[in-house]
Specification:
Elements: H1 2-22, E1 28-33, E2 39-42, E3 51-57, H2 70-78, E4 81-85, H3 91-103, E5 108-111, H4 115-125, E6 132-135, E7 138-141, H5 145-155
């Protein structure tokens, strides 16, 4: 009897706690018209004589995210962090997420998986390598702890352990991802425009022989000189 009398209040308390926990998810509001024709809104069911009764389920609002610490909010405003990953970048990209979450750094994650995202990464970092972290306008490809911390330190983000950590997860795999990351398109080569002295495409007669042009001239072979003619044996010396 003593054991039963102890369990009964405990069971009642647990049931009440469960009902309170479920109440926000089952909250309802009623709209109805009273005898005087006035519209009423109540949380409790209306009386039997109420007219035009309508019931609406109320979805409780999600609790707002806690505000960022002042130091983090200031650094994030001046030097926002963007991380470029890919669906097939598993361990190293998760390491980058974990390091940012540990420092309490909010970040935007862009998955490089199609031509558009590949071109974007190529534009901001000059290469196609994941993970790449962009802090403000400065990019860091790969993950190296000292360089990672130095970049965030220079941007003013607090060290790990001084602000509450975050729990940002990896985004879902994009629909249509086939397992390969395309290469960025090569930049088009600009062709030089024809200037006022551009002679390409011009046609005309061949140039005429000038004053010192010996082409086409005939005459007697050159006479041997003091040093002879090229290709001939030198004359014997006379005693």
């Amino acid at each position: 009897m003593i054991f039963r009398s102890f369990l009964t209040p405990l069971f009642t308390l647990l049931s009440a706690a469960l009902l309170l926990a479920m109440a926000p998810a089952q909250a309802q509001q009623y709209r109805w018209i009273d005898k005087d024709g006035r519209v009423q809104f109540t949380d409790a069911p209306p009386p039997p004589w109420a007219k035009d009764v309508r019931r609406t389920n109320i979805t409780p609002a999600k609790p707002a995210a806690p505000p960022l610490p002042f130091e983090v909010a200031r650094a994030n405003k001046d030097f926002p962090v963007t991380v470029y990953t890919s669906p097939n970048c598993a361990e190293i990209c998760e390491t980058v997420r974990g390091a940012l979450n540990k420092r309490g750094v909010p970040f935007k994650e862009v998955q490089v998986w199609n031509q558009e995202t590949a071109d974007e990464l190529k534009k901001v970092s000059g290469a196609l390598e994941v993970p790449t972290m962009l802090v403000g306008r400065q990019a860091l490809a790969g993950y190296e702890q000292a360089a990672f911390d130095a970049l965030l330190d220079n941007a003013g983000y607090p060290r790990a352990g001084t602000v509450p950590p975050l729990q940002q997860k990896a985004p879902p795999v994009p629909e249509g991802y086939l397992g390969e990351v395309p290469k960025p398109k090569p930049a088009p080569v600009a062709q030089p425009k024809a200037g006022p002295y551009d002679t390409s495409g011009l046609k005309g007669p061949p140039p005429k022989p000038g004053q010192y042009d010996p082409s086409g001239l005939t005459g007697p072979p050159p006479k041997p000189g003091q040093y002879g003619v090229p290709g001939e044996a030198a004359p014997a010396e006379t005693k």
